[in-house]
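Reminder: ligand-aware prediction takes two inputs, not one.
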Amino acid sequence: MTDLLVRGALAVAGGGEPEPLDVAIADGRIAALGPELAGPARAELDARGLHLLPGVVDPHVHLDDPGRAHWEGFPTGTAALVAGGATTTVDMPLNSIPPTVDGPGFDAKLAAAAGRAHCDFGLWGGCVPGNADELAGLAARGVVGFKAFMSATGVDEFRACGEDDLHAGMAAAAELGLPVAVHAEDDELTGRLAAQAAAAGRVSMRDYLASRPVEAEMRAVERALALAEATGCALHVVHVSSGRAAGLVAEARARGLDVTCEVCPHHLLLTDEDAERIGLLAKCAPPLRTAAECERLWARLVAGEIAWVASDHSPAAPELRTGDALHAWGGIAGAQSTLELMLTHAHHERGMALGRLAWLLGGAAARRLRLAGKGTLEVGADADLALVDLGAERTLEPRELWYRHKVSPYTGRALRARCTG
Ligand code: ZN
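Here is what comes back for the chain with zinc ion:
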């Protein structure tokens, strides 16, 4: 018996143009997909006039739970994801206390999530100085891979890796057959520039942006690629912010390395001028860059050189978002808006096909991180669906947000899409 029949939506299935299809769901899976399926079903949903995409897979989210659930949390963060069309997320190993850097840390996070998440989730393990021996235990528990920082994280319990630490972690990850994801900014350069700025009293947003130049990203990406090559580790560079960094990754892949990178909507859509206008809600690392750099990233994305789009949803308690821009806490709250932003700007404005967009927002990460049944509309896949109204013209309002703190640099922005279910 079919549990639910979704009728008549323009479905983005396979690689072709959207076509009107019915979807039959039984036991949480897609049981049938085709035009005008026969019933009966326990329930029917008339979705004519809407588009149906695979539920978004957001592989880069900080839910901060347990330990800093006053920043975000499984209930609110996953509610926001679902409201934005995401049905699966992968939580980052830091900003929770304990961090997910060993077996007990993993168990604590799973306990915090139990019965409180509104969508499916996976966990990244952490690769930190001295924990290479813990990675096997994390792998046995089911992490999708390991996240390492090459620059300061801002939290004491999750430290950045130096070269030797990263080498040890990558060697262990290679043995386990899991990827390492790196935040790639050169700590020496960013640390020195930030210290010089602080000493001179240069603490504005413009000074913050200048303290984290593209050069810092380039140096770190080059080092990470060299270590991946030396260890045979699969590498993923999170949130690339420059066309040149994405280009380094593409070149390395062309010569045979197993390396990918991701881009975040904020690096495609928000500029240095937006950072000055919006203020601390638009502070992030790597920072927002020039409009020309955004265009270079779009070109790399369109060329297929960037594997996927992820939010890097990274909220914080409001009291940390005060003071000068050089020292205040950063992080973009954006997970609820990824699909609507990309439908507006990639599809409507730039003509990206919906099938391609669905791949960038789900299928690609699901494949690389081995999330079976995710990111695709096909018989046998999980019944993870996103229904969207592509004709909606609207402005994003704070009251629509499901985050723990209803703020985002995207509020007030014009959107041409609405997730409806
Ligand atoms: Zn992040």
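The chain has 13 helices and 18 strands. The radius of gyration is 21 Å. We will return to this case in the review session.
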